[in-house]
Design brief:
Elements: H1 13-16, H2 25-39, H3 49-78, E1 82-86, E2 90-93, H4 96-103, H5 106-115, H6 120-125, E3 130-132, H7 136-150, E4 155-160, E5 165-172, E6 175-181, E7 192-193, E8 199-201, E9 206-211, E10 217-222, E11 227-237, E12 244-254, H8 256-264, H9 268-279, H10 296-321, H11 328-331, E13 332-337, H12 344-355, H13 360-370, E14 371-374, E15 385-387, H14 388-394, H15 396-416, H16 421-427, E16 430-431, E17 437-439, H17 440-447, E18 450-453, H18 456-464, H19 468-473, E19 478-480, H20 487-493, H21 496-506, H22 527-552, E20 561-566, H23 575-591, E21 600-605, H24 613-630, E22 639-644, H25 649-655, E23 661-664, H26 676-682, E24 686-689, H27 695-702, E25 708-709, H28 714-720, H29 726-732, H30 734-744, H31 757-764, H32 776-791, H33 793-805, H34 812-824
Parallel strand pairs: 1-4, 1-13, 4-12, 13-14, 14-18, 18-19, 20-21, 20-23, 21-22, 23-24, 24-25
Antiparallel strand pairs: 2-3, 5-6, 7-11, 8-11, 9-10, 11-12, 15-17, 16-17
Helix pairs in contact: 2-3, 2-5, 3-4, 4-20, 7-34, 8-9, 10-12, 12-13, 12-15, 14-15, 22-33, 23-24, 23-30
Bound molecules: ligand 26Q.
Length: 834
């Protein structure tokens, strides 16, 4: 049949050579039609915009893929140093509009769709969010890889391809009800499965050691239950630069011999069912929930990510350099996104020693020169620990290696502080006690050459507090990298009208050099510019109102001050303080104290971890208070309180352009950085905030006159702790007393007596770690200053412009340049156009 004999299964160049795809409207229209009609098999009777989304997405994806290959080839040819961002979370949100922006085809695609009678917004909105993260840490990873591609840095993201992402939040009678997020139900056109690059991951079993032919001790990890990690790759385009990097997410599947073995045993149905054990590993994203700590499945996830990613990088290395690892550390580095992937420290040691035959010292030198760790929390209770017993049964070889790292490390400590046994106990990677625990943060610090916090204050507090002993031992390892957000998604794409005004005024250089927004500063005093700015903000507010009206049937007036707090619900973030203030405003209205009143819409959104009792109570509390206020005819437009359900990336894209006031009110010293604060600032909201996390740097950039500061400082909070007396604070504050009374007398729980007792008790307790009551007065005063400022529309707009103009520092392009200059030291590489 075939006249030609194939000697190799490798595709010939004539198969892989393709001519470049056009970026004009007619090219997109033609490709769209082909995908819609042929690939997807739809016709004019199909009413769902989802298929139109898919057809356009496929056309856009083709254009990414050709650039992806060019980037891949350039990195290969240059043999450049590479970095790998290891993260259990990549909170990507939607892809289509960002991909079009970065390819530079936003307007062309819009008119192409228009020509076909389609509204592109509708297509964009039918894409489900890739919600593979909890919040800040996961979204930071997504912004980082966007900036890496824009800066043309050879960085690959490694993560997990959860079948179910962050749960979707619904409200029933004001309470959060979680629904599974089956985001892959209709497929995912952006990913490419690459089974040929799968890796085998070991679990369980035991170790045996023997002396090899060269007299060296070798350890084998045997009788394991293996699973396969299969990569799915997603293209990550840079902004209009031809670079397309890779996000590689691992899916766990059963191994082939697992199938055979069980099949031969005769239990066909059971063996197929047992595949679930393997596939379960990447089934679901863990919510950030104290109740989920210590779960074996989470440790399996972490190890699968670390092992698969390291094996992948090493396989690549060995393919080029054989077993010569002498240059490995010069050419590779791994950034660990919190301790979640920090088992990578021990896994790299295992792979180098057990698989590639390096001796301990050589392997340790490589490990310590390739790994870098970012911390994202100051809460001691959030530091990851794993039971030694669990480790022993799941990852016995890794536990041995951790013990050996520890014994070398403790020897180092005892040289530095001879006889200081208390310090050795404090610093040990193993916490002694009833149940021995592995301290993952310490493993990360010991195994990495760089340890960073995510804002100036946070990094300082790590050195002085949580990691003090380690800072004294290795001060050179510690550094700060203040977070950022990508201005492409968080200004250009989500607020196109404002972006257009900015570009018309100062040119479009700001998109890749956000410090250029400074050029807007003189325009803050230009009445014409101010009017344009004001009109755009009002338009964004209208769109937000419209979005909420269709979604939840509430009507808001855009004349009101839009006061927004969206973030995970957590006591330290103090959504309760916000509600106390709302109740105080309500009380003022009821008392008739409404002279010089500023109408206000308070919008609060966020998910509570499913097992976090107080967070869930807070949601119920917000909804009950909202119910009373919004239905009281005395209140009318003066005050509205709305809980925004199912807060997620795509919701923030609609919310942040329409915010006037950004609530960043955590107890000082508790929020590592915050990144929502930056998105709001970039879109011209003013901040009301404490001296916490990146708020401090935001205030430094924009100036105290354009920021509503309140609250105790971190130092004052710690000083007050020993003699905190909320009851006397309440007693001395008439307004606060009335607010507490209203809650206590059941005003917001008439049909549900006592349901908010725990809420009131928590803030009245002298052990309240978040000291909500301590900041009440100062918060109310700051809110008052904001209200008065808002009455002067012109001056408010001026401050809004100055906030945006001062947000240049908070681009992840700046953050990533800092990481690169001080930690990774990569050289940018432009794609190879063949
Ligand atoms: C832990 C154990 C078991 C299951 C889940 C987890 C878990 C998951 C996610 C623990 C923590 C997280 C996420 C933390 C996070 O998002 N931290 C935030 O990181 C942002 C980016 O640096 C900062 O801006 C925020 O201040 C910080 O709270």
């Amino acid at each position: 049949m075939h006249s030609k004999k194939f000697t190799s299964s490798k595709p010939a160049a004539n198969i892989t050579k393709l001519s470049p795809l056009g970026l004009e409207s007619n090219h997109l229209v033609a490709d769209f039609k082909r995908y819609y009609g042929h690939r997807l098999g739809r016709d004019e009777n199909c009413r769902s915009p989802y298929y139109a989304y898919e057809a356009l997405a496929l056309a856009i994806s083709d254009r990414l893929i050709e650039r992806w290959k060019a980037t891949y080839n350039a990195y290969k040819k240059e043999d450049c140093k590479r970095a790998f961002y290891l993260s259990m979370e990549f909170l990507m949100g939607r892809t289509l509009s960002n991909a079009m922006l970065n390819l530079g085809v936003t307007d062309v695609a819009k008119s192409a769709m228009y020509e076909l009678g389609l509204e592109i917004e509708e297509l964009i909105d039918s894409e489900p969010d890739a919600g593979l993260g909890n919040g800040g840490l996961g979204r930071l990873a997504a912004c980082f890889i966007d900036s890496c591609a824009t800066l043309q840095l050879p960085v690959t993201g490694y993560g997990l391809r959860y079948e179910y992402g962050m749960f979707s939040q619904t409200l029933v009678n004001g309470e959060q009800v979680e629904k599974p997020d089956h985001w892959l139900r209709n497929g995912n056109i952006w990913e490419i499965e690459r089974p040929e690059y799968a890796h085998r991951i070991k679990f369980g079993g035991h170790t045996e050691s023997h002396i090899d032919e060269r007299g060296k001790k070798r350890v084998c990890w045997i009788d394991t239950h293996d699973v396969l990690a299969v990569p799915f790759d997603t293209p990550i385009p840079g902004y209009k630069n031809g670079t397309v990097n890779t996000l590689r997410l691992w899916k766990a599947t059963a191994t082939e011999e697992f199938d055979l073995q069980e099949f031969n045993a005769g239990d066909y149905a059971e063996s197929v069912a047992a595949k679930n054990t393997a596939e379960n590993i990447t089934m679901v994203l863990y919510p950030n929930d104290a109740n989920e700590n210590g779960k074996a499945l989470r440790l399996r996830q972490q190890y699968l990510l670390a092992s698969a990613s390291l094996q992948d990088v090493i396989a690549n290395w060995v393919g080029r350099h054989g077993n010569d690892f002498s240059q490995f550390a010069e050419k590779n580095c791994f950034q660990l996104n919190d301790t979640h992937p920090s088992i990578a420290v021990a896994e790299l040691m295992r792979l180098l020693i057990d698989i590639h035959g390096l001796d301990w010292d050589h392997a340790w030198k490589i490990t310590r020169n390739t790994m870098a760790y970012t911390n994202h929390t100051l809460l001691p209770e959030a530091l990851e620990r794993w039971s030694v017993n669990l480790f022993e049964s799941l990852l016995p070889r890794l536990l041995e290696i951790i013990y050996e790292i520890n014994s070398h490390f403790i020897a180092e400590v005892s040289v530095h502080w001879p006889g200081d046994h208390d310090r050795m106990r404090r610093m040990s990677l193993i916490e002694e006690g009833n149940e021995k625990q592995v301290r993952m943060a310490y493993l990360a610090i010991v195994g990495c050459y760089s340890v960073n916090g995510v804002a100036e204050l946070h990094s300082k507090l790590l050195q002085e507090g949580l990691f003090r002993d380690f800072y004294e031992l290795w001060p050179h390892k510690f550094n700060n990298k203040t977070n950022g957000v990508t201005p492409r998604r968080w200004l250009a794409a989500c607020n196109p009208d404002l972006a257009k005004l900015i570009s018309e005024t100062i040119g479009d250089g700001w998109l890749t050099d956000l410090s250029q927004l400074e050029k807007l500063k003189p325009y803050a005093d230009d009445p014409k510019f101010r009017e344009k700015w004001y009109n755009i903000k009002q338009e964004c507010k209208s769109k937000l109102v419209e979005y909420k009206r269709t979604e939840m049937g509430v009507d808001l007036s855009t004349d009101a001050l839009f006061d927004v707090q969206v973030k995970r619900i957590h006591e330290y973030k103090r959504q309760l303080l916000n509600v106390l203030h709302v109740i105080h405003l309500y009380d003022r209205i009821k008392r008739g104290e409404t002279k010089n009143w500023t109408n206000r819409c308070v919008l609060i959104g966020g998910k509570a971890a499913p097992g976090y009792y107080m967070a869930k109570k807070t949601i119920k509390f917000i909804n009950n208070v909202a119910d009373v206020i919004n239905n009281d005819p005395d209140v009318g437009d003066k005050l509205k309180l709305v809980f925004l359900p199912n807060y997620r990336v795509s919701a923030m894209e609609k919310i942040c352009p329409g915010a006037d006031l950004s609530e960043q009110i955590s107890t000082a010293g508790k929020e590592a950085s915050g990144t929502g604060n930056m998105k709001f600032m970039m879109n011209g909201a003013l901040t009301i905030g404490t001296l916490d996390g990146a708020n401090i740097e935001i205030r430094e950039e924009v100036g105290d006159d354009n920021f509503f500061l309140f609250g105790l400082t971190e130092g004052q909070v710690e000083e007050l702790r020993s003699h905190y007396d909320p009851l006397s604070i309440i007693e001395q504050d008439e307004d606060l007393k009335r607010v507490i009374k209203l809650i206590e007398c059941g005003h917001f729980s008439l049909l549900e007596p006592g349901i908010f007792d725990d809420v009131v008790n928590s803030i009245r307790s002298s052990n309240d770690p978040w000291m909500t009551v301590a900041d009440f007065r100062s918060y109310v005063d700051a809110q008052n200053r904001a209200e008065i400022a808002y009455l002067d529309k012109d001056n408010w707009t001026r401050m809004s412009i100055l906030n945006c103009a001062s947000s240049g520092k908070f681009s992840t392009d700046r953050t990533i340049s800092d990481y690169n200059r001080e930690i990774w030291k990569l050289t940018p590489v432009a794609p190879l156009i063949s």
